[in-house]
């Protein structure tokens, strides 16, 4: 790393007073650009997080007219880290656009990263993002953002992505500039921040960059960027009115028009436009619309209507959820837009009131549901319509076999749906209630209202349907209803009881018993094996079982095949999920006497017994060969 001397110069460029550290470096991987304006309380944490990054970097801090004493701290850092931290000073511009552009003009790294002075990076952030970029030749790398009292995007950070297509992913949902950008791409296409904007300048910049990025990557398994809310609320985005709906809708036209100039009509353009309609246009018809006054509501609706007239295609409409399609039809009806905003913003209050088994493996689920609109707004009367139970298989994909819709009878005050558990595949199924309010569907997990409950009610007993067990249960701590088909997370209640044991020819121990699951007798083909498990070594021996229609079973075990040790007896069953094992219960009166025999010069002894306390069948197998016999006599 080659470094020259520190030079302080006054320049007349743009009327800015610049303190510049001139360095000749050919190995700068990342230039971190930090716009600074009155962030002294946070500056130390920010710069420290940058200096510990294990990459070849330079930090360009553009002091945008700070007056809080942060300049002295900045000079101290620059003097202690010459060749790494460079300081550029200019008069206050009022926004982050100009200082970021000035920082770009001083950048020398292969990549640039923008970091606000009140935020900070994880210790391995740049190392991981740079490694991703170098592996794939990335033009943009998104690193996972973590919010500290700030909302952050999450949809694009589900998993790492070496190369993610712009048109078939959620990366365009994130239009902040807190990313790693290839500097050559920025320079070649003259990608810069809009200095006329105080809010949204990074949206314009990032939109332009996405349009020219050939390779986009995502680092999702590490907390790269920490977005911090200032306790005093003095940052631009925290100031009251910073997201004024009308101003935002007018601002967002710039990145949309910029994107349209670069992306031809088709699926990709519709995918990108959907983001702007869903998050920017219709997002302001939600809670911001309720906060607005009567006049402003008309202005918001007019701006959204104009955007729809200009850019709403059939491809975009098809990608929108039902509530946004309802809004499009209601843009001239302010009262309906208000009701739709209430429907979207309100919570769904739901309560499970009854749960019972009916015949042939059908589970009746009853409950009630209502829309709890926000109290601080005028609360219109909104009546629920079509009702259904929706069961979704946990940890599954989005295929048709992973969701089952069950129509419900009744109304919101009392509804009932009957679930045929034989239609559910093996796994965990979470139960939701779906209700339509003015044609807009809302979905919520169904469970008990925990207010006033000291403990969750006891769910109904498991039910064996054919050779599958269904176990209703309530999740903790929220008390929501789920169905475990096959016994994946809920222990299957059952018992295998020894009725009689006897010795047969060949030193075989014959066991006769009875098996139940819950209160029912399982199907004969559900009982698989008699399993003997040796306690110390965990070795296992399986033997087939004969089962009767009444739940009786018979198993034979040639005890000489077990080998020396203490063996515990289980009955293993296949109930549609992981193998379910029940210890065989026994009382001493049912246990056969020990047996001893000789096999060649070795004496075998087998002692079946019932364990103390719970009374479970076990057996001790011992062998005594000539050497052991002689050693015992000599000792």
TrEMBL record:
Residue ranges annotated for the TarS/TarP linker domain, each copy included: 245-340
Residue intervals of the Glycosyltransferase 2-like domain: 31-187
Cited Pfam families: Glycos_transf_2, TarS_linker
Protein's organism: Streptosporangium amethystogenes subsp. fukuiense
InterPro entries recorded: Glyco_trans_2-like (IPR001173), Nucleotide-diphossugar_trans (IPR029044), TarS/TarP_linker (IPR054028)
Protein's recorded name: Glycosyltransferase family 2 protein
Listed SUPFAM superfamilies: Nucleotide-diphospho-sugar transferases (SSF53448)
């Amino acid at each position: 790393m080659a470094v020259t001397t520190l030079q302080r110069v006054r320049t007349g460029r743009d009327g800015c007073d610049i303190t510049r550290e001139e360095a000749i470096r050919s190995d700068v991987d990342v230039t971190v650009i930090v716009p600074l304006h009155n962030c002294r309380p946070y500056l130390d944490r920010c710069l420290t997080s940058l200096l510990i990054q294990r990459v070849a970097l330079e930090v360009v801090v553009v002091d945008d007219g700070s007056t809080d004493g942060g300049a002295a701290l900045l000079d101290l850092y620059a003097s202690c880290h010459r060749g790494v931290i460079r300081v550029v000073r200019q008069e206050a511009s009022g926004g982050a656009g100009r200082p970021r552009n000035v920082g770009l003009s001083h950048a020398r790294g292969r990549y640039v990263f923008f970091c606000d002075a009140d935020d900070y990076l994880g210790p391995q952030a740049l190392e991981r993002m740079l490694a991703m970029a170098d592996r794939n030749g990335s033009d943009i790398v998104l690193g996972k953002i973590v919010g500290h009292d700030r909302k952050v995007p999450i949809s694009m950070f589900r998993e790492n992505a070496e190369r993610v297509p712009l048109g078939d992913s959620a990366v365009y949902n994130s239009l902040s500039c807190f990313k790693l950008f290839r500097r050559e791409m920025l320079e070649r296409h003259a990608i810069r921040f809009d200095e006329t904007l105080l809010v949204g300048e990074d949206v314009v910049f990032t939109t332009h960059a996405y349009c020219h990025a050939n390779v986009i990557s995502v680092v999702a398994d590490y907390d790269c960027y920490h977005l911090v809310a200032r306790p005093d609320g003095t940052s631009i985005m925290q100031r009251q009115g910073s997201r004024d709906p009308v101003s935002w809708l007018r601002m967002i036209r710039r990145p949309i028009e910029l994107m349209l100039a670069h992306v031809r009509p088709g699926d990709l353009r519709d995918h990108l436009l959907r983001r702007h309609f869903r998050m920017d246009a219709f997002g302001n018809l939600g809670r911001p619309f309720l906060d607005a006054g009567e006049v402003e509501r008309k202005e918001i609706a007019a701006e959204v209507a104009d955007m729809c007239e200009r850019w709403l295609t059939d491809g975009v409409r098809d990608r929108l959820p039902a509530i946004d399609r309802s809004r499009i039809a209601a843009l001239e009806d302010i009262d309906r837009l208000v009701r739709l905003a209430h429907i979207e913003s309100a919570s769904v209050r739901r309560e499970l009131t009854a749960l019972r088994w009916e015949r042939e493996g059908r589970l009746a689920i009853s409950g009630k549901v209502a829309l709890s609109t926000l109290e601080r707004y005028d609360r219109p009367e909104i009546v629920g319509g079509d009702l259904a139970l929706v069961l979704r298989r946990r940890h599954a994909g989005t295929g048709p076999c992973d969701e089952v819709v069950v129509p419900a009878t009744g109304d919101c005050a009392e509804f009932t749906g009957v679930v045929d558990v034989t239609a559910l595949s093996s796994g965990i199924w979470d139960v939701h209630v779906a209700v339509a309010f003015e044609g807009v569907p809302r979905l919520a997990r169904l469970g008990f209202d925990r207010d006033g409950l000291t403990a969750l009610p006891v769910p109904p007993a498991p039910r064996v349907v054919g050779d599958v067990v269904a176990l209703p249960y309530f999740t903790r701590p929220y008390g929501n209803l789920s169905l475990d088909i096959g016994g994946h997370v809920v222990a299957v209640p059952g018992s295998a009881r020894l009725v009689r044991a006897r010795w047969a020819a060949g030193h075989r121990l014959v066991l006769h018993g009875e098996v139940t699951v819950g209160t029912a007798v399982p199907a004969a083909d559900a009982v698989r094996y008699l399993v003997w498990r040796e306690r110390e070594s965990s070795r296992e021996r399986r033997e087939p079982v004969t089962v009767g229609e009444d739940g009786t079973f018979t198993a034979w075990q040639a005890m000489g095949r077990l080998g020396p040790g203490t063996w515990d007896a289980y009955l293993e069953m296949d109930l549609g999920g992981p193998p379910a094992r029940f210890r065989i219960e026994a009382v001493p009166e049912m246990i056969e006497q020990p047996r001893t025999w000789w096999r060649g010069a070795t004496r075998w002894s087998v002692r079946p017994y019932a364990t103390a306390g719970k009374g479970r069948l076990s057996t001790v197998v011992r062998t005594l060969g000539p050497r052991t016999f002689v050693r015992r006599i000599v000792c």
